[in-house]
Fold this protein.
Amino acid sequence: MAILVLGGAGYIGSHTVYELIEAGRDVVVADNLITGFKAAIHPKARFYQVDIRDRKAADQLFEREQIDGVIHFAAFSQVGESMKNPLKYYDNNLYGTTVLLQSMVAHGVDKIVFSSTAATYGEPERIPILESDKTVPTNCYGETKLAMEKMMRWTGIAHPMHYVALRYFNACGAHASGKIGEAHDPETHLIPLILQVPLGKREKISIYGDDYPTKDGTCIRDYIHVSDLAQAHILALDYLMKGGESDVFNLGNGVGFTVKEVIDVARAVTGHPIPSEVVPRRAGDPAQLVASSDKAKTILGWKPQLDSLETIVASAWNWHKAHPNGFNG
Ligand code: UFG
């Protein structure tokens, strides 16, 4: 019996595949390679180049492989792009998930772990954020992820389907092997952008606003290592395999760092002065996003291992130094 990882060539998906294979699981990866990279797929995973919107291809996959659980990362994930092209997000994220769930129901595959996001909350009503807090997304990306969660919930009411939605905070860092890491095109995330400065690819890092109501005026985020996120997927799958109820879990470290603090850590890790410049706020950025992950710790038994920001930035630096152009060299 195998685990099907949809989007297993992407950033968090590829790290989860590495952890699954290290844990001795049989893994099938499906990815359309629109944003994922073939080189990110673990050589021991069986790979199918499949788009989840293609029902025939999904059916063939479930007929050919004995799948007993699905981990679903296959979605577009750029907040800015989702605001400019919302229908692209509805098509891939919502229509794609509809087709996937239809095919799963038709083939009796009844367990799915789903890649959700802190963007489902929108502007938080309190810090740290609990799973029971209100979900009012402020961007289309978060809206589609919340709708995907709801689609799974209603599917689970009508059919024998159980799901776990994992709401990640700020995923970062890279695999300890140095073989895989973060590679987005275009890159919009803070840590890889900061590291482009010591790599000589960028003169300085822009700080999006220093007039937020935080200790140094810059936004606070909860940075969580991608390998810790990957472990949570395995725990969530095992929880469902043991008969666990459908549920939603936050995944973060529970500690917030300002943009300026992250830049300072990167200066210490790289030994580079990393010049910075304050520019206007980026639209839609909440001042603070920090998770309470107590529920994942209590129910799933999750415990982040790589929880110091220095360790996280050092692991990202290790990857970017060796692969300044990501999977293209
Ligand atoms: N930032 C800068 N300069 C940059 C890039 C980012 O100051 O060049 C700031 C942002 O304003 C934000 C922080 O750094 O305050 C982190 O920004 P990221 O783009 O790295 O991450 P976000 O917090 O915006 O996004 C993350 C996930 C999204 C998810 C979102 C929820 O990557 O998938 O949290 O709000 F939707």
Summary: Residues 172 and 225 are 5 Å apart (CA to CA). Residues 86-106 form the longest helix (21 residues).
